[in-house]
Design a protein that fits this description.
About 40% of the residues lie in helices and about 10% in strands. It has about 950 residues and is an alpha+beta fold. The strands form twelve sheets. It has a seven-stranded mixed beta sheet, sandwiched between helices. A three-stranded antiparallel beta sheet has the order 5-6-7. β26, α23 and β27 form a beta-alpha-beta unit. The structure holds 1-deoxymannojirimycin (DMJ). 1-deoxymannojirimycin binds next to loops. The site of 1-deoxymannojirimycin has 9 residues, from loops.
């Protein structure tokens, strides 16, 4: 696209911009700033960029090669057990599995990545495989949203680049729109989902039987998420325009029209879930992350791709509301659609990390820089962005499935600013992926960013998006075989050509100007970022925005960042009391509680209940504050219970060929050596005999000085611990006897004692579910000598590994894969081994069943009621900034353990001291309550 085709970037967008100008402008917006940077952060040399680009290529080979070798034609790779994830053959993971349709998901999602990464030959092979092997008519219930963005988008992205290559005359000369035909077939399969009065699609569909047929096993759902219904237009319109079949675009537009109609009219926000029949909002909270994210993304991108002003006008209306209510730079916090000044949460989810990238496309760079910087600091703290984190940057939900959103925003910010800082950010992402997520058979999702433990999961979006954005970040124009600016990225980073806007343009654009009178022209000024305006004579602009936020996560008192309602600022009025600030010993706080209509009730069982009666509040504003206080208290309490009750531990396999790369999530014991307080325990593993460890061991010589493996069941955990300790074991791992159990699907628990004094047990004991345990058993069969590390947080990978890993050529990578084949081929034998051990169990019968005997203290998160008045608060009542600073300090000290320069033995344990603090606080609170009532 040439700049000559468009008006000057930064001039207001005309109310009815011709599509070609819009498309051209959007493309220019993303490239024109790269040459602006002249001084400031150290520029990165071309060599360094190429080196990083090559590293991305090698990483992609590792992920894609292992998928093709060990998982294909399955939908996804399970990188820990090195096999394919086939739906129905693995324990259900709930909604996450709805992306899997037995259609070789990862291969389809990877198609256009292959071309971007210059792997044209591999692309040609991959397309042939898709055409030969993929069946779209499986009797599987899939998510309409996921199938659209990953499979339909993947096929269309593949088609878009296949025809581009064919036109170039070298590759794909045989190609005759076969991928497009498959996409059309899939499009027709998804259409029955739209058979609702509202036009909003059902969330799921059976690929073979649709919605209505009795065999479909779906069609009874009443709700869907806003993003699920509002993220179809790019793929559906592209399908219509590529094929001339207008029905797809029509259906997607109808769904968008309905969502727009249903927006909350006074706030212009949308909720997270909506009833597909009545159009009522089911969840009325509103943010830019999970459940809504790509609805906004598609409004703006539909404008770019289709040149229809109504989409821009809708986007701008929502954007204005987002910036008014949700954006609290650098934070983005959910609010209620009806009471948009009221925060709905005190935490943020990882999906919102795409938003700075979208803000770049919108042209609003300042908040994009701010939010991105905040997210980067959270990443620096935890190595990855946890699925959710609190407003004071603590982990709220510790998983990280290798999501690409942050890399996406980093790429767009680099394109907009040309600031080499963003290249350094990309470099860190690459380093962290290799250091913490890379396993011998691919890249494994993080189960817990705090412990560094893995999940047996590598989602297809990791290949569709992560490698694309990282590669493009370091690539110069000549590194890519086509002009990326001629395409728009879908939400799954699939590429659709901008020329579609003039093809088969049969759907009339709405003349909607009268509908959108709420915004003045200034809202349209920023649609196209103009570097002249964004960085007025100041190439250090981006840096100057980041600078004040430099220590926002680690050093500052985070409370100051949160927005307080405007009223609070008026005439020096105090901001409302926040739950985390509340101190039960502070009479002023108790007075405020009263004013807010919140009373304290001491329950018979010793717990304290907070009850709010809005009617007893001094004013409506106080009542509103009280409601927020209660909501915050519930979240705080639930988060603290989670942290308090679920201190997971890690079992890290440190011997060859794992070298610390495989980390398993383990449950702690309430007895024995506390790994959060003491140095970790490292040793070779040995199976105990009898395997259940319920009597004196007959093989003490085998377990002496080692970490004994014992099977769950037949007697108490403490008894097992004593038996292996007496045999000279230095630690124990109890492996669940419930075959197929996994920490992916079952809540982790602590192994309880036997009700007696367990002080005699000195060794550390950890629990592994069966699937995690079988990874160790499998390794023993393959490598005999297996050494593990038991700890509360995975340690940095063994330095030895550095010399052996990081294959520099494809050959090396192949060798490594060969190793994996032999490793995974042992699985069948393992089952045999286990069953023979089961026989030996049976020959040592005990009087009680395993279920009776294992005294497991379940520590799954407590249920949380949505009604604040029903919540029994026993929460942390200490929210002082100094305490928080201490915690952050302790956390960052703990994190030093993962620093390669820090010795393995160094240990800091924040959890117990935090727990002790909480208990003291709760006691003080209860005492105070007793006195008062
Ligand atoms: C991707 O599948 C898409 O980007 C989607 O819109 C939401 N996020 C996932 C990856 O995190």
């Amino acid at each position: 696209m040439s700049e000559a085709g468009g008006r000057g970037c930064g001039s207001p967008v005309p109310q009815r911009a011709p599509w070609s100008l819009v498309a051209a402008t959007a493309a220019i917006c993303l490239v024109s700033a790269t040459s602006v940077w002249t001084v400031g952060a150290e520029p990165m040399s071309r060599e360094e960029k190429q080196k990083l680009g090559n590293q991305v290529l090698e990483m992609f080979d590792h992920a894609y090669g292992n998928y093709m070798e060990h998982a294909y034609p399955a939908d996804e790779l399970m990188p820990l057990t090195c096999r394919g994830r086939v739906r129905g053959q693995e324990p259900s993971r709930g909604d996450v599995d709805d992306a899997l349709g037995k259609f070789s998901l990862t291969l389809i999602d990877s198609l256009d990545t292959l071309v971007v990464l210059n792997k044209t030959k591999e692309f040609e092979d991959a397309v042939r495989k898709v055409l030969r092997d993929v069946n779209l008519d499986n009797d599987v219930v899939v998510s309409v949203f996921e199938t659209n963005i990953r499979v339909l988008g993947g096929l269309l992205g593949g088609h878009s680049l296949a025809i581009m290559l064919k036109e170039k005359g070298e590759y794909m000369q045989w190609y005759n729109d076969e991928l497009l035909q498959m996409a059309k077939q899939l499009g027709y399969k998804l259409l029955p989902a739209f058979n609702t009065t509202s036009g909003l699609p059902y969330p799921r569909i059976n690929l073979k039987f649709g919605i209505r047929k009795p065999e479909a096993r779906t069609g009874t759902e009443t709700d869907t998420c806003t993003a699920c219904a509002g993220t179809l237009i790019l793929e559906f319109a592209a399908l219509s325009r590529f094929t001339g079949a207008t029905i797809f675009e029509e259906y997607a537009r109808k769904a968008l029209d309905f969502l727009w109609e249903k927006r909350q009219r006074s706030s212009n926000l949308v909720g997270v879930t909506i009833n597909i029949h009545t159009g009522d909002w089911v969840r009325k909270d509103s943010g830019v992350g999970a459940g809504i994210d790509s609805y906004y993304e598609y409004l703006l991108k539909a404008y770019v791709l289709l040149g229809d002003d109504s989409f821009l006008e809708r986007f701008n209306t929502h954007y204005d509301a987002i910036m008014r209510y949700i954006s609290q730079p650098p934070l983005l916090l959910d609010v209620h659609i009806h009471k948009p000044m009221l925060n709905a949460r005190t935490w943020m989810d990882a999906l919102l990390a795409f938003f700075p990238g979208l803000q770049v496309l919108k042209g609003d760079i300042r908040p994009a820089i701010e939010t991105h910087e905040m997210l980067y600091q959270v990443i620096k703290k935890h190595n990855f962005l946890p699925e959710a984190f609190t407003t004071d940057f603590r982990v709220h939900w510790a998983q990280h499935p290798l999501r690409p959103e942050f890399a996406e925003s980093t790429y767009f910010l680099y394109k907009a600013t040309g600031d080499p800082y963003y290249l350094e950010v990309g470099k860190t992402l690459i380093e962290n992926l290799n250091k913490y997520a890379r396993v011998p058979c691919g890249f494994a999702a993080m189960k817990d960013v705090r412990t560094g433990s893995h999940e047996d999961r590598m989602d297809s979006f990791f290949l569709a998006e992560m490698f694309k954005y990282l590669y493009l970040l370091f690539a110069d124009k000549e590194d890519i075989i086509f002009d990326i600016e001629d395409y728009i990225f879908t939400t799954e980073a699939h590429l659709l050509p901008l020329w579609l806007s003039t093809t088969n343009q049969s759907i009339s654009k709405k003349n909607t100007t009268s509908e959108y009178t709420e915004l003045d022209d200034s809202n349209f000024d920023w649609t196209c970022p103009n570097t002249q305006i964004l960085f007025p004579n100041d190439p250090l602009y981006a840096q100057s925005i980041r600078e004040p936020l430099k220590n926002v996560v680690d050093k500052s008192c985070p409370r100051g960042i949160i927005r307080v309602r405007e009223e609070s600022f008026r005439s020096g009025a105090k901001p409302p009391l926040r739950a985390r600030d509340f101190m039960a010993t502070n009479p002023e706080h108790l007075e405020i509680l009263k004013k807010m209509g919140v009373s304290l009730i001491h329950l018979k069982d010793g717990r304290v209940q907070l009850v709010q009666h809005a009617i007893q509040a001094a004013s409506s504003i106080d009542a509103e504050d009280g409601l927020r206080f209660m909501q915050e208290m519930i979240e705080l309490s639930s988060q603290q219970q989670k942290e308090q009750q679920l201190p997971p531990r890690a079992v890290q396999i440190v011997s060859h060929p794992f070298f610390g790369r495989v980390v398993l999530t383990a449950g702690p014991a309430q007895f024995g050596l506390d790994l959060s307080k003491h140095k970790e325990t490292r040793g070779f593993v040995a199976s105990s005999k009898p395997y259940n460890g319920c009597s004196e061991l007959t093989n003490p010589e085998a377990v002496m000085g080692k970490i004994a493996l014992i099977q769950r069941g037949q007697c108490m955990f403490a008894e097992k611990a004593r038996n292996i300790q007496n045999a000279g074991a230095i630690g124990g791992i109890v492996i669940d006897d419930n075959e197929g159990s996994s920490s992916d699907t079952a809540p982790l628990f602590q192994m309880a004692g036997d009700g007696k004094d367990t002080d005699d047990i000195k060794i550390p004991m950890l629990f592994l579910f069966s699937k995690e345990g079988s990874i160790i058993l499998d390794a023993i069969r393959e490598y005999e000598e297996v050494e593990v590390l038991l700890s509360d947080k995975a340690k940095d990978r063994d330095p030895e590994m550095e010399n052996e890993e990081q294959p520099s050529s494809e050959n090396d990578s192949q060798n490594q894969s060969a190793e994996q084949i032999s490793s995974s081929s042992q699985e069948v034998d393992l089952v045999d081994q286990e069953s023979s051990e089961e026989n030996s169990l049976n020959s040592h019968p005990e009087s009680l069943s395993p279920a009776d005997m294992d005294n497991a203290a379940s520590i799954s998160p407590s249920e949380q009621t949505s009604n604040p008045t029903e919540n029994h608060e026993t929460a942390n009542l200490n929210g002082e900034c100094t305490d928080l600073d201490n915690q952050l300090q302790e956390q960052s000290e703990t994190e030093e353990d993962s620093n390669p320069n820090v010795s393995w033995g160094k240990k800091v344990q924040p959890i117990d001291s935090i727990l002790a603090d909480w208990n003291e606080d709760i006691e003080a609170f209860e005492m105070m309550e007793k006195d008062e009532l």
